């Protein structure tokens, strides 16, 4: 599973931030590893520079073999919380989509 981390100019993607993203995605989505080709992660600070509640946003899109991409997003007060929330939501979305698909065969 390839993990791509993208951001607009509002977020400085440091190696530590990239590591956090990869760790969160791998721990949440490990069981889907065989079915995923890649996960694209988009980080955004919606107030760029100004602080505000829930202004950090993480959107994740999982590319699933033989399936439409599945996308989730999560807003939080920090990027770390946004990343963790989006990864958790993606885990649930994948479980729902793939379990349903597996049960139909």
TrEMBL record:
Span list, region Disordered: 42-73
Gene source species: Stutzerimonas zhaodongensis
UniProt biased composition (Basic and acidic residues): 42-68
SUPFAM superfamilies in alphabetical order: Ribosome binding protein Y (YfiA homologue) (SSF69754)
Gene it is expressed from: raiA
InterPro entries xref list: RHF-like, RHF/RaiA
UniProt-recorded name of the protein: Ribosome-associated translation inhibitor RaiA
